[in-house]
Specification:
Blueprint (H helix, E strand, L loop, with lengths): L1 H13 L8 E7 L5 E7 L2 H13 L5 E8 L2 E6 L5 E6 L2 H13 L6 E7 L2
Antiparallel strand pairs: 1-2, 1-3, 4-5, 4-6
Amino acid sequence: MHRIVLAAGLAAALFPAVAHADYGAIAFSQQTGAVTYSYSAGSKGSADSAALKRCRRYGGGCFIAIRFRNACGAIAVGSEWGYGISWADNREDAGWQAMSNCNEHDDGCEIRQRVCSG
């Protein structure tokens, strides 16, 4: 029994696990103002698909505003549906950068979504 434990420990040290890539996406509609998201998806396509499917429940005009992988994404939206997006290592940085980007295009910007994958 000890040999199995030692062998498993040695195998883990020699062959570290490959990091799992988690994808996320934020969908937005400038027609309706809908903002939806996905996170912890196994692929970029499945992240996009989930976010778009949720967005379309609120009407048309949905598109993927931002994708992120093993990170956090954010969107800020202004009073005239202008928007800013960003991704970063944490929710706060992603949100503040999205807000800054939105303020370059519109007034009355507010962070509408911050979400992390993984």
